[in-house]
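Slide 14.
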Amino acid sequence: MPEQAEAPASASSEENGAQPQDAAPVKRSDEPVEAVDAEALEANSPVSAVEASVLAPTASLAEPPSSPPLATLDPRLSDKKQRPARRERARADTNAPQYGESQQKVWNSFKDSRVRSRLWKQHGVNLIPEVWADLDARVKADRKSSGETDLARPAYIDAIILDAPEDIDEIVELVDLINEELLGVPAGDRTSVSMSPEARTKFLGHLEALADARMKRKGKDLMTALTVRMLRRLDTEGSMPKPQRPRLL
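Slide 15: predicted structure.
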């Protein structure tokens, strides 16, 4: 029978150590070790699919989800965080006092007299009585409108001198104009007024410039002209606004 004839041949092949055709060849110890085939190991591994799913790390534990880049965020989200701050700034800008140019100069001198009071010193100022009266009336009105009861002559005189032109020709022209308008400047009333070091230096420099221009002893005329000019500008700007005091906390 054919089946009985083939059986001994198969048995003899196993006895002689013959290997099946699909069996992996045995590598000798002296051959170089090749890289391990991960897929082959996985296919021959006795671990079941259920155990592999348990042992495998989950995506949430292995690598946390990355946040989207800032460029892709909805800009409206960031705007919502900024709106309160913008509203506060807008409210502060709305409540901030609106000073005229000359009012701002007076207010700057007033603040400087409070902050750097140690540097302010007395200096003689000569004005005609009418202009002194006009200046005092302006100071009184600004005290009432601004609520600053400490406003006084020094802040105005300091601002008047600092606002004076630098060019000597303009100084001479102002002196000539006040003499023309008043048909000669009458006798003045001299008093000491505190002013900043910058104002003292500038005033002394103008007096020297007038002396060089053959207009010596014209300090009263110059201060009268400068004061009248400032008071007229302040009149056009209206009442001194009430300052805004920011909260410390």
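Speaker note: The first strand starts at residue 121 and ends at 127.
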